[in-house]
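Whiteboard transcription, Tuesday session. T.W. wrote the structure tokens on the left side:
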């Protein structure tokens, strides 16, 4: 073959291959950010927190990867409904919550971290401000459920329910969230749910309250949100960056305004009373069970 022709072919193949290589690398990077959780960095403390509660689709991906056990959730709740991929995973026990956070590149938040994120940088009493506003988030009692009804709604779907950090949603309402604080088999959760105990503002704020249950609890009102340690090389104070398992977003406290999503039609059981701040017994409920055939108490007076 003539050397000039050969050289021309080599240059042509090289020019075609280079864009292909760049496109493949860029595609992988975009996929990692698109499928991982979105993280919000605390401006004053060395941790990140997931912008929303863990969604059903994230737990399904964890199961598909062999990292989560389907038995850690009740399939009669959101996990078993193919139309609820964007809703929070609920009816998940504490071990299941640990597993899905590990899969997502994080861990369970400690109570201290969860409360710090809820307070924001200005020490607010509720994620969105200093006073309780029942219409801001999907939170309610067993007699008067949250604005979205007696069910969960898609994660991060209520723009008004933002804070204490900018970009952080549903710290009050939708589902309560398992945290890492345990004493034996008793583990705590934070944040109120779409239905819960009176007075609802006691559980819907950023204060240290007594709320928890046996770590094997699978309740329709309890889900999970993850935290992770911020590495020394990670950007601080609002820098946006791609990170393993997802993107890190801007940090500041504040709340956004917007419209609330309509809720899907599902219901939740009223648990029997157990302790001074326990949920009240059911009365004519036709809700989904919490995993054991009968509803379990959501909170107790244990420390």
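and on the right, the sequence the group agreed on:
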């Amino acid at each position: 073959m003539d050397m000039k022709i050969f050289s021309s072919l080599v240059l042509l193949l090289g020019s075609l291959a280079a864009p292909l290589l760049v496109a493949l690398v860029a595609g992988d990077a975009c996929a990692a950010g698109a499928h991982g959780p979105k993280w919000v960095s605390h401006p004053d403390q060395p941790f990140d927190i997931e912008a929303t509660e863990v969604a059903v689709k994230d737990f399904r991906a964890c199961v598909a990867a062999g990292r989560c056990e389907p038995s850690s959730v009740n399939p009669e709740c959101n996990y078993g409904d193919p139309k609820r991929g964007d809703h929070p995973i609920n009816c998940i026990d504490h071990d299941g919550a640990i597993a899905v956070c590990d899969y997502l590149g994080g861990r369970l938040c400690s109570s201290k971290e969860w409360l710090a994120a809820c307070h924001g940088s200005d020490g607010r009493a509720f994620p969105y401000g200093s006073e309780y506003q029942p219409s801001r988030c999907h939170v309610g009692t067993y007699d008067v459920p949250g604005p979205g009804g007696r069910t969960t709604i898609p994660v991060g779907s209520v723009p008004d329910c933002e804070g204490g950090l900018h970009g952080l949603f549903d710290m009050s309402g939708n589902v309560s969230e398992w945290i890492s604080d345990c004493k034996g088999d008793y583990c705590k959760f934070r944040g109120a749910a779409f239905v819960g105990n009176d007075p609802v503002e006691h559980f819907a704020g950023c204060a240290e309250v007594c709320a928890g249950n046996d770590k094997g609890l699978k309740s329709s009102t309890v889900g999970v949100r993850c935290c992770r340690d911020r590495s020394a090389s990670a950007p601080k104070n609002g820098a946006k960056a791609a990170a393993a398992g997802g993107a890190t977003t801007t940090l500041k406290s504040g709340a956004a305004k917007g419209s609330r999503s309509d809720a899907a039609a599902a219901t939740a059981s009223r648990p029997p009373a157990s302790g001074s701040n326990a949920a009240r017994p059911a009365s004519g409920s036709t809700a989904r069970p919490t995993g054991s055939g009968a509803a379990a108490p959501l909170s107790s007076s244990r420390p």
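Someone added at the bottom: The first helix runs from residue 3 to 35.
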